[in-house]
Design goal:
With 86 residues, the chain is an all-alpha fold. It has one domain. 71% of the residues lie in helices and 0% in strands. Helix 3 packs across helix 4. It starts with a helix and ends in a 5-residue tail after the last helix.
Length: 86
């Protein structure tokens, strides 16, 4: 995902290609879990920690382990979605 993102201009990056495919799927899951939620905003919020650029920064420069990243993302999802979860 990082390589594909790096080749896209800023305006296209989030509404086309790999990011948009993930966003569309996640938005649908959020709508199913909580129809009253702002699924568009939540999908963006949940995907931001997964963007290629931040992942590369965390792994290469900040020294984050994969377990740390996965654990933190899982915790974020649980906190955002609440008890209904996905």
């Amino acid at each position: 995902m990082a390589a594909a993102e790096a080749k896209m201009d800023h305006h296209r990056r989030f509404r086309t290609g790999p990011y948009h495919a993930h966003w569309t799927h996640l938005r649908q899951l959020i709508r199913e879990a909580d129809p009253a939620a702002d699924a568009d905003y939540r999908a963006d919020t949940l995907l931001q920690p997964l963007t290629g650029a931040i992942f590369v920064q965390q792994r290469r420069n900040d020294g984050f382990t994969l377990d740390r990243i996965k654990g933190s993302i899982s915790q974020l999802v649980r906190q955002v979605l609440g008890p209904s979860g996905l």
